[in-house]
């Protein structure tokens, strides 16, 4: 069970760059996400926790964490392109 969360996962470079979004705007966008995506985005994008820490806290594999993070980032990006409306 100890190796359950130890998968080394990295992105392929196709992720939206959210680094230039002001913290307040990012927090608002994260708050509009569905719960499953919100908890991942909050832990990784706002609280700056490690993938291992967040996956263990949520009880999900890192592969699932990466999938949820990718979906959250795409949703945030689309929301911002649509003038802040949830996508």
TrEMBL record:
Gene3D superfamilies for the chain: Winged helix-like DNA-binding domain superfamily/Winged helix DNA-binding domain (1.10.10.10)
Record-given protein name: Unannotated protein
Organism of derivation: freshwater metagenome
């Amino acid at each position: 069970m100890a190796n359950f969360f130890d998968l080394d996962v990295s992105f392929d470079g196709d992720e939206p760059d959210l680094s230039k979004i002001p913290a307040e705007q990012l927090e608002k966008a994260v708050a509009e996400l569905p719960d499953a995506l919100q908890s991942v985005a909050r832990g990784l994008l706002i609280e700056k926790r490690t993938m291992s820490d967040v996956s263990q806290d949520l009880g999900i594999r890192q592969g699932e964490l990466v999938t949820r993070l990718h979906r959250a980032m795409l949703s945030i990006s689309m929301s911002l392109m649509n003038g802040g409306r949830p996508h």
